[in-house]
Amino acid sequence: xxxxxxxxxxxxxxxxxxxxxxxxxxxxxxxxxxxxxxxxxxxxxxxxxxxxxxxxxxxxxxxxxxxxxxxxxxxxxxxxxxxxxxxxxxxxxxxxxxxxxxxxxxxxxxxxxxxxxxxxxxxxxxxxxxxxxxxxxxxxxxxxxxxxxxxxxxxxxxxxxxxxxxxxxxxxxxxxxxxxxxxxxxxxxxxxxxxxxxxxxxxxxxxxxxxxxxxxxxxxxxxxxxxxxxxxxx
Length: 234
Description:
By secondary structure, the chain is mainly beta.
């Protein structure tokens, strides 16, 4: 099967994938769906340098394969689960310049600081039109670095969809500025169509989302410290 281009796997009984999959060097598309008992993808997936598209459910797979940044031809990666240790960190996204479509980044509590999140180079990924930033809801300890991590995750200005879930900071980053005169602020994200702010429990004030001209769908949920929405929204 050395010339196989597409591999689709779907079974609730599969617990592990054979490492032989990582020798299908011409594979361009890997689909994993409905494999509820599969907790991780083969570690040597990084060897499939011709991979263009990876589809898997981020809720089912416990972590992203090691060294995913070596798959520089990758265009579709719906989920990136941040881990700890070399090869599992958010910097792996920095080399994936061909990414497009939707990307959810989960377990952001594992990101060390602003410099690490900035190295994901999301601001350069102009073909990624929808981004989701997720922190685990059941994490322990303080959330002191959430603000600087989100600061470094600044998207490109053509973004159409944004989700922020489980953010533990008290204020949103500077790229969500509220000033009318802000040159690089949130007002430049005038292509945003939908925004979800979920479980940002410590934030007291919303950004001026009412100024976004294309905004159609807005979901605000679990923001316990927001007591009112007034004229500052506009």
